[in-house]
TrEMBL record:
Keywords from the UniProt entry: Cell membrane, Membrane, Transmembrane, Transmembrane helix, Transport
TM stretches of this protein: 21-45, 51-74, 86-104, 110-133, 145-170, 176-195, 219-241, 253-271, 283-304, 310-332, 344-362, 374-396
Subcellular location: Cell membrane
Protein name: MFS transporter
GO MF assignments: transmembrane transporter activity
Main subcellular location: membrane
Membrane topology according to the record: Multi-pass membrane protein
Domain Major facilitator superfamily (MFS) profile: 13-400
InterPro entries: MFS, MFS_dom, MFS_trans_sf, MFS_Transporters
A Gene Ontology cellular-component term: plasma membrane
């Protein structure tokens, strides 16, 4: 016989159901905000701990290690254990990360903090999205998906803004942001506890498999290539763009650096919501074309040391990244067999998070040999070429489909 608590979880009251998705959306945004909080602080860390851009990119990229570990190890756990326990675990990782950053005084602690932050994002992202959608009424599922997108990308974009302002204008520039985040996460824990449990707990524990069926590999390859190009730019803006603002453009204001870094996330969120009705393959092509334009603007911005152009580059690149990534995922999910959709989607996300880390570390290496400005321009050119190749591949695929039809 089920206990009273189990009955309550399975049959939430109408009021709890009505506000559950809002509570979960807040928790989602609060967790994701913490993953980008350090962005405006990397310049200060480098000054105080005496490291170069390469070390900055390595510290940033350990975040992706945590995300990938969480996706592969914990990706299926919420189906077996329930959404709430997994969300609370993700919040626990976020709290641990904030505490580590609060006291970090050397590079190893920064690395630990970033890994914990990645674990929090990897655990939270898929589970929170599923919980928000499941908590909403069936006729509002599209709206719930949009809310989950805004919570996710909005939290990422808010991180650099909040931290930039606090670092520039408040005391304790390397501590206050994380103290604020601890409070926000604790409120998020309360929100998760108040929201209803939505999982039927019918899944099984185990590692998430990665695979792509042979018949859909051409489509997957183009979508994943577009995601790789877009996420590499996102990584650049999170890890290196504040250093561009200070060292290339000559502006020391950390709030300005936060605004520039957040521009790509704001644009990405708007683009993802606006492009939901565009056919997936066409949308990926459009996103790649826009990303090429964004990289041209980025190269010119760095060459001219122009702050306005750097903000425009972030906005344009964010639009391209948002469209190509979200609709690329839709294209992949649309073609994947139902019983293998999780494997294919997880493989797609792995490609995206590898793109956040590896190209950015390459940028760090290049900056040591070419200088920061030249390395940034080279990064923009390489990404533009990759996006253009992807665009050409999609056009060839479309022509073959049209000829066959």
């Amino acid at each position: 016989m089920p206990t009273i608590s189990q009955v309550t979880e399975q049959q939430p009251t109408p009021t709890r159901q009505r506000f559950g998705f809002a509570l979960l959306a807040y928790a989602f945004a609060a967790i994701m905000l913490g993953t980008t909080l350090p962005t405006p602080m990397y310049a200060l860390y480098s000054d105080r701990m005496h490291f170069q851009v390469l070390t900055t990119t390595v510290i940033f990229s350990t975040y992706a290690v945590g995300v990938l570990a969480a996706l592969l190890v914990f990706g299926r756990w919420s189906d077996a254990l329930g959404r709430r326990p997994v969300l609370l675990a993700g919040a626990g990782f976020a709290l641990a990360s904030a505490v580590v950053f609060l006291f970090a005084d050397d590079v190893p602690l920064l690395l630990v903090g970033r890994v914990l932050s990645g674990l929090s994002a990897g655990v939270f992202t898929g589970t929170a999205t599923a919980a928000i959608v499941e908590t909403s009424p069936p006729h509002q599922r599209d709206r719930a998906t949009a809310i989950a997108t805004v919570a996710n990308i909005g939290g990422l974009g808010a991180g650099p803004l909040v931290a930039g302002v606090l670092v520039q204008y408040a005391p304790a520039p390397l501590q206050l942001s994380f103290a604020v985040h601890i409070v926000l996460v604790l409120l998020g824990v309360g929100a998760v506890l108040m929201a209803p449990e939505t999982s039927s707990r019918t899944g099984t524990l185990g590692l998430q498999r990665l695979s792509v069926p042979a018949q859909m590999r051409p489509v997957f390859l183009t979508a994943a290539t577009a995601a790789f190009a877009g996420f590499s730019v996102t990584g650049l803006f999170m890890a290196v763009v504040p250093t561009f603002v200070r060292s290339v453009i000559g502006i020391e204001n950390h709030a300005v650096a936060g605004v520039v870094a957040s521009s790509i996330f704001v644009a990405s969120a708007i683009a993802q919501l606006s492009a939901r009705r565009i056919p997936p393959r066409r949308a990926v092509a459009i996103g790649c074309a826009i990303l090429v334009v964004g990289m041209v603007v980025l190269a010119v911005a760095l060459h001219l040391a122009s702050l306005p152009l750097l903000v425009v580059a972030g906005a344009v690149a964010g639009i391209g990244q948002g469209i190509s990534f979200s609709r690329g995922l839709a294209a992949v999910a649309e073609l994947a067999p139902a019983d293998r959709r999780a494997e294919v989607s997880s493989t797609y996300f792995v490609v995206a998070y590898v793109a956040i880390s590896v190209p950015v570390i390459a940028e760090g290496f290049a900056s040591q040999h070419l200088g920061l400005r030249t390395a940034g321009v080279s990064f923009a050119v390489a990404t533009a070429v990759l996006a253009a190749i992807c665009l050409a591949a999609i056009l060839v695929q479309e022509r073959r489909i049209a000829a066959a039809g």
